[in-house]
Amino acid sequence: MSRAVTSLAIWITLIIALATAAHAADTGTAIARLKSFGGSCEGCNLAGRQLTNASLVGAQFSGASFIGADLRGSRFKGSDLSKADFSKADLRGADILGSDFESADFNGANLSGIVAKGSNFEDANFNGARLEAATFIGSNLESARLAGADLSHTTLTGVNFEMVDARGSDFSYSALLGANLEKAIFRGARFIYSRLDGANLANARMDGANLSHASMVKTWIGGTDLSQVTGLTQDQIDRACANAQTRLPPAVKPHICPRAWVH
To answer: What is the DSSP code string of 109-178?
Structure first.
């Protein structure tokens, strides 16, 4: 099937689904419907659309606009949504598996409670986004922007956060087990009661960050400047792993150990 025909088929499906949703709204009837999309529709404009419980499987929607769209409970599997615009969209409870969101824009979006496994969010923009209680497992967020984002109560297992800019973000009560946070910017971020066990914080920029009650068992802090953080205790550092380049507050002594000790 040609690309033009495939795109036309997608648009027909969308028009029918949206017309049905509009009719349901007009009659005051709440009808839960599953909208399933596939094929290619690069650059589609779906801004402000009602797409709750939509299912995008093997779909090519790179560069598409979902600005302000309602995508609650949606499912993305093996799909390409690189450079798509989800700013101010509602993706609460979305299920994401093996999909590509490289350079996508989630500025101000609500992603509370999403589950993302094995997906790519490299260089994505999450500035000011709501991600509380989200789950990211084995996903790549390298160089993502998360300034002022709410990541409290999140589960971030084995994620790659290398070089992310998460200044002023809230990671309180979150689990970043085995996460790669190398060279990330966490200025003014909150890690209150978070779990950083086994995480790599090498050369991260932490000035003004709050580490009160954070668990740091086998956390690698080699080369990291923690001299300006708040809430850091000797007990936390005794469980972590520093090197000669680690900088700490005056009252805290480093626990030097080889990097291999972390693994």
So the answer is: -B-TT-EEES-B-TT-B-TT-B-TT-EEES-B-TT-B-TT-B-TT-EEET-B-TT-B-TT-B-TT-B-TT
- Dihedrals phi, psi of 125, to nearest 5 degrees: -105, 110
Query: Within a 10 A sphere around the Cβ of 22, how many other Cβ atoms?
Result: 11
31, amino acid identity: I
Structure confidence at residue 36 (pLDDT):
73
Classify burial at 199, counting beta carbons within 10 Å of its beta carbon; exposed 0-12, middle 13-18, buried 19 or more.
Answer: buried
Contact 164, 182 (CB under 8 A): no
Which residues lie closer than 8 Å to 14 by C-beta, 6 or more apart?
35, 37, 46, 49
Complete DSSP assignment for 77-97 = ES-B-TT-B-TT-B-TT-EEE
For the residues 55-61, what does the mean pLDDT come to? 96
Instruction: Look at strands 55-57 and 36-37 and give their pairing.
Output: parallel
**Mean pLDDT, rounded, of the chain:** 88
Contacts of residue 260, defined as CB under 8 A and 6 or more positions apart, other chains included, come to: none
Given this model, what pLDDT does residue 11 score? Answer: 41
Give the C-alpha distances (Å, rounded to integers) separating 226 from 99, 126, 157, 250: 35, 25, 23, 10
Rounded to 5°, the CA angle 232-214-109 comes to 120
Query: For residue 57, with 0-12 CB atoms within 10 Å meaning exposed, 13-18 middle and 19 or more buried, which class applies?
Result: middle
Mean pLDDT over 46-57 rounds to 96
With H, G, I as helix, E, B as strand and everything else as coil, classify residue 60. Answer: strand
- 62 with 39: CB under 8 angstroms? no
